[in-house]
């Protein structure tokens, strides 16, 4: 019984250690990432309420707009399909928002089929290949960037990253960080599993 308890405690200790390591990766990558001038800017989608972009989506799109205006990229790929409760795709919502801010629609490329981060990146990579874009800046919330970077690398996207932290919604951001740690652990586990089997 004592031996079993020790094993349980060791297991909990290892789990806590792993959570700390992954949390550090998520936080450090999000805070340290810097955009580099690229062929395009990929803005990853987020929730749309009907046809109204959520605050997280607006902040991501505003960051993409800032980078575009400052000359970091000549085109913006807005990436995100139409989810439950959404009247239009996340990509379309971002395009409308950008056009309302004065961006020429010819500079905005829609990727409106994806329903996950991996699909965002796979479909965006396909667009990049068709347009002969070699490099990209990937924009999302800071907590999301580490996992997105692993997926981008997996898909062969040469990218830098720029993240946002939505200050008026700190609680939601905190929840995002909490959810991202197990999501990152799951990604590593599935990656390792696929290599073994």
Strand coverage percent: 15-25%
Terminal Cα span: 35 Å
Global Rg: 18 Å
Fold-level CATH name:
Rossmann fold
Report the biggest beta sheet as strand number plus sense, adding barrel if it closes.
5 strands, parallel
Gross morphology is elongated
User: What is the H-and-E element order?
Assistant: HEEEHEHEHEHEH
What topology, given as strand order, has the largest sheet?
5-4-1-6-7
CATH class: Alpha Beta
**CATH-wise, what's the superfamily?**
HUPs
Helical percent range? 55-70%
Residue runs with pLDDT of under 50 for 5 or more positions: none
Describe this structure in words.
The chain crosses the membrane at residues 7-30. The protein has 197 residues and is α/β, with parallel strands linked by helices. It has a single domain (2-163, 171-196), classed as Rossmann fold (3-Layer(aba) Sandwich), CATH 3.40.50.620. It is 55% helix and 16% strand. The chain is built from 6 helices and 7 strands. The strands form 2 sheets. The chain has a 5-stranded parallel β-sheet with strand order 5-4-1-6-7, with helices on both faces. The chain has a two-stranded antiparallel ribbon with strand order 2-3. α1 crosses α6 (170-196) and α2 (55-69) crosses α3. The longest helix is centred in the first third of the chain and has 31 residues, at 2-32. The mean pLDDT is 94.
Defining traits:
DUF218, two-stranded antiparallel sheet, 197 residues, membrane, DUF218 domain-containing protein
Short description:
By secondary structure, the chain is of the alpha/beta class.
Secondary-structure map with pairings?
Layout lengths: L1 H31 L7 E5 L3 E2 L2 E2 L1 H15 L5 E5 L10 H11 L7 E4 L5 H15 L3 E7 L3 H10 L3 E7 L5 H27 L1
Parallel strand pairs: 1-4, 1-6, 4-5, 6-7
Antiparallel strand pairs: 2-3
